[in-house]
């Protein structure tokens, strides 16, 4: 991982972008217990030391994957993050889903790809939802999800196909089927923008040092 990525993965930057702020304690998923530092009032506080360790591990994986020509599908069906996901995926030349998840997109990709090549007769909703994967010719090497609780189907499909999954894990999130969990706030625009920038930059770093 190059120096630029290291500089952007500091505790101070994560703190400034609200990565440490979890959910209300009543919404806690106990699976995230090891990633929590404690609570402030009724809000869980995420342990940024653990976030930093897992984030750097993830970015190394992403950079290495990219250097081998692998692709990463950016996914978030949360409206507030639609532009962030699209912008950062495009920046590093990766496919993205930033509207709604099309069931079977991964597990039935051959059929979906045929519809993408010839969208005549497809619903406007399908066309609108698949803009970011229009040129995706093969299954992604990995997926990156922001807002796992809203996109469990994508996670399950990737798991069935043994596709590595990267996901932001807030204090109310299950870590089941996530290969590379990143403990952090998944509701903040600042935090989500930081995650997406880091993943995108790691992809660009890997492609710059491509082995192919």
Automatic annotation (TrEMBL):
Which is a Gene Ontology cellular component entry for this protein? Answer: mitochondrial small ribosomal subunit
Task: Name the UniProt key words of this record, in alphabetical order.
Answer: Mitochondrion, Ribonucleoprotein, Ribosomal protein
Can you tell me which family this protein belongs to? Answer: Belongs to the universal ribosomal protein uS2 family.
Which Pfam family, giving just one, matches this sequence?
Ribosomal_S2
Name the chain's protein.
Ribosomal protein S2
Q: GO MF terms on file?
A: structural constituent of ribosome
Coiled coil spans: none
Single Gene Ontology BP annotation: translation
Species source reads Reclinomonas americana
Gene label:
rps2
């Amino acid at each position: 991982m190059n120096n630029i990525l290291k500089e952007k993965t500091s505790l101070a930057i994560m703190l400034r972008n609200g990565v440490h702020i979890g959910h209300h304690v009543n919404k806690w998923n106990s699976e995230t217990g090891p990633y929590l530092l404690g609570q402030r009032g009724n809000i869980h506080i995420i342990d940024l030391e653990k976030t930093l360790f897992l984030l750097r591990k993830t970015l190394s994986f992403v950079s290495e994957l990219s250097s081998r020509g692998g692709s990463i599908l950016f996914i978030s069906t949360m409206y507030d993050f639609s532009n962030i996901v699209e912008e950062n995926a495009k920046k590093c030349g990766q496919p993205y889903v930033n509207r709604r998840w099309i069931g079977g997109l991964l597990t039935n990709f051959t059929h979906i790809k045929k519809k993408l090549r010839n969208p005549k007769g497809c619903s406007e909703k399908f066309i609108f939802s698949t803009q970011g994967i229009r040129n995706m010719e093969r299954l992604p090497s990995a997926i990156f999800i922001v807002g796992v609780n809203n996109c469990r189907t994508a996670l399950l499909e990737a798991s069935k196909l043994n596709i590595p999954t990267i996901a932001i894990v807030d204090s109310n999130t299950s870590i089941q089927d996530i290969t590379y969990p990143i403990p952090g706030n998944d509701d903040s625009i600042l935090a989500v923008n930081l995650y997406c920038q880091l993943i995108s930059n790691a992809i660009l770093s890997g492609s710059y040092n491509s082995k192919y």
